[in-house]
Design a protein that fits this description.
It contains 5 helices and 2 strands; from the N terminus they run H-H-H-H-H-E-E. The radius of gyration is 40 Å and the shape is rod-shaped. It has a two-stranded antiparallel ribbon with strand order 1-2. Helix 1 runs antiparallel to helix 5.
């Protein structure tokens, strides 16, 4: 009677091994990835501040050019706000509050404001575990799972002969010859 054998056997240790590798990988890589993400966000914020500073510098340059050209609207506004002078024939209806506002606020106010919004780090259960106080527990659990996965092996079927090799053994006593010893126990064929 012919015995049927499955094409392959699923080793029960593989799920433990893969889960343990995933936990250890997450506990080692995710904190470094979070630091990298934080650095990238700081770089993006600095680039945003540089762009804003360049826009403000451009507004100052434009103001200086308009002052050198003698722009009549700008000169009138400067005379009214800074020197408290009105052209002849004009009477103030409302008291100007802009007299106390420095010119730099005019210039910087001409640049549209935009706030930088940082992207948050991806949130997952593994990242919360690996980034918090439980990081060592996650790593320890992963190592334990790897250990369990390596220890668990599929049982050998009876009747299978293992590959045995003969290994030469040398005796410690003088005069004894070289003998061979089987590396695995002998199995009886059925």
């Amino acid at each position: 009677m012919a015995s049927t054998q499955p094409l392959f056997e699923i080793d029960p240790g593989w799920p433990y091994l893969l889960a343990g590798l995933g936990l250890v990988f997450g506990a080692v890589v995710l904190p470094e990835q979070a630091k990298l993400h934080q650095g990238e966000q700081q770089l993006a914020q600095m680039q945003h501040l540089v762009a804003r500073s360049e826009a403000v510098a451009g507004a100052y340059d434009e103001f200086a050019v308009r002052v050198k050209e003698g722009d009549p609207t700008l000169m009138r506004r400067l005379a009214v706000s800074q020197l408290n002078l009105l052209p002849e024939g004009e009477v103030p209806i409302v008291r100007a509050e802009s007299a106390t506002v420095p010119i730099t606020e005019w210039i910087e106010g001409s640049v549209p404001a935009s706030d930088f919004v940082a992207e948050p780090f991806r949130d997952s259960l593994l990242s919360r575990w690996a980034l918090g106080r439980t990081r060592l527990w996650v790593m320890g659990g992963g190592v334990m799972s790897i250990f369990v996965g390596l220890v668990m092996t599929a049982p050998r079927r009876r009747g299978e002969s293992a590959d045995c090799t003969e290994v030469p053994a040398v005796s410690a006593e003088p005069g004894d010859g070289v003998t061979t010893v089987a590396a695995c126990p002998a199995t009886s064929a059925t």
